[in-house]
Amino acid sequence: MDTRRVRPNLSLIAARLDVSVATVSNALSGKGRVSPELALKIRSAANDLGYVPTMAGRALRTGRSHVLGLVLPDIANPLFPQIAQAIERAAAEAGYGVLIADSRNEVSTQTEAIGRLLERGVDGIVIVPRRGTRVADIGSPVAVIDSPSTPGNTVSADHWQGGQAVIEHLVALGHRKIVLVGNNPASNVQNDRIGGMKSRLPPGTEARVIWAEKIEAAQGPGAPLGLAALAREGFTACAAVSDLLALRALTELLGAGVAVPEGMSVTGFDDLIWAQAVRPALTTIRMDMPAIATVAVGALTAAIEGGSSGARGPVMAPSPEAGRVPMRLIIRDSSAPPGPAIKTNTANRSSNGGIPE
Amino acid sequence: MDTRRVRPNLSLIAARLDVSVATVSNALSGKGRVSPELALKIRSAANDLGYVPTMAGRALRTGRSHVLGLVLPDIANPLFPQIAQAIERAAAEAGYGVLIADSRNEVSTQTEAIGRLLERGVDGIVIVPRRGTRVADIGSPVAVIDSPSTPGNTVSADHWQGGQAVIEHLVALGHRKIVLVGNNPASNVQNDRIGGMKSRLPPGTEARVIWAEKIEAAQGPGAPLGLAALAREGFTACAAVSDLLALRALTELLGAGVAVPEGMSVTGFDDLIWAQAVRPALTTIRMDMPAIATVAVGALTAAIEGGSSGARGPVMAPSPEAGRVPMRLIIRDSSAPPGPAIKTNTANRSSNGGIPE
DNA sequence: AACGATTGGTTAATCGTTTAATCACCCCCT
DNA sequence: AGGGGGTGATTAAACGATTAACCAATCGTT
Questions:
Q1: Residue pLDDT, tens place only, A277-319
Q2: A10-53 and A67-157+289-326: identical CATH topology
Q3: B88 contacts in A (CB within 8 Å)?
Q4: CATH says A67-157+289-326 is which class?
């Protein structure tokens, strides 16, 4: 038995049934005029032979590769799995494959990556742009996933609303002095998140914003955020704009002897993999990636299949509301009402690190 | 000015210079017989027009798409960015694009994903198989990245040696009672790592292995690993088989009042993004992904370009040594000599969570 | 009964590239 | 001078699918 069966093509089926390839093509695509009985025979023959249309042939003729490009910005963005998976799934559902390209966080590499995708004949591109870059007309439809406040943005999570939800949650728990932790003030996404947070601060509450990159620039990389000191000043909650920052805050607090959430509540953003792995599990807020991907891919395919009228640059979501997808708060164990200890954490603790001598 | 310039093709160039398309093709590929002067003219004309060969046409004729498939197993594997980036880079260097497919951690989806890639005409597939699956002859070259002890493995990190390096490090620091933390005993990778660790235990040292999934199966999801209790038993170090487990261990210890690394050292595996973000920064061990990707892609392209003799199933690394890539220990702050506290961590700690009243 | 409309199918061109086969020359050698 | 051997280019056939144009029946109408 020869395992390397040759890939059957239209003419094989045509020969088998003694009809023309055109008829086979028509029968399978349901486009031309073929009698129902013959169409049935053709389809079953195609099935028997395990016929799968060759993309190259179709692409050459139709000019559509049915492949989308995906360009990601950061060298090792932990969001990558979520994004890639959602996009791949949505694309697969729409009959498209996904070709990836990494822009290694450089503008030049980003344009180069786009070029490579275009050369490969992708029908459209989903791009999470590097901070500060703006995608222009590249001769192919592009869906931009960044932030609703970025001009040209196609679709993205509603980071502003996400920030609001976090603060609402903390305020409802009774927190009145909250520290807001960002990383880089130049990021649209982070600014949206912080902005949303600030917008929901009721009168009588106090918030202080600290930027990790600023601290590191001043005090060297890896410098502590100084959260324990803030706890001593009376801050009872710490809302970070990313799970990575939240993790840093959490471990810093724990290491400094401030219990979480008893001494200070901590919240993150994005619900990355480790949010559930840490103890206490992280209260965080999550993008609806499947929804975002569906809108992005939908807008893209609409533009592609729209034909000549299709956009050659950024495409837009069908409606403004569709372009800003709400985020969902996920309450775990790292947030709780402030105040006197609920459980004590000082057992087993001594000056040798908690080991009885 | 019409921004939508039509994509130039061979015949456009041919017409411009009044030569045949075959000559143009020959000149650009350097294959046929073309006079040096004409070749030069053709190349410069191609350059001027911004000619880029259309993949569809070439693929149709040659049967090679110059696209590789990448199949990943876990729904949100945090290693994904590292792998995808390395593979993409190696592939791009070899002139290939990378089409992704997610197997959502199911065997059926994995075969289906492979099928989709094949339909799209990929020339070969890089696969990180789901636990326990074995990739057979799929009619296309496949590079398997799993573990050296997996039959059919093409290339992977030397997890065994990685485990050894971790233990050597901890033993050199003076640790004699070490807890080894795994997640699932069915994983080849985890078993290799644990095996390597055990193999480097000098006489007089004690090691205890705990499996997170077993504990969770018995005590419910999210159950504590019980590390603080082990610390009280005299264990001074904890070597986890993944950074995720290490993170869980670290936060559990910190939360229970055991200082790290003073009370207990903690090490991870893979050097994922958060290893540097936590405090103390995690001592871990990292795969040489670029090297692994280079071998995988190299073996694949060799099989592809080897033509008819090319393997239709798993391909092998050029040599056994090339197939097992050493891992590199990265020493940070979470590992230190055991024993009496180096710094005390009890300041600011009280029963209300460290907040002065 | 003849004509137009409809149905069911075929022919052939086309997409862009590669490549085997062929051809027209010029040069060199006997 | 005439044939062999290069050299530099052209011709034409493929790859596989799609689709416009065409053709041969059959059917319905008046």
A1: 999 999 999 999 999 999 999 999 999 988 655 667 889 999 9
A2: no
A3: 100-102
A4: alpha beta
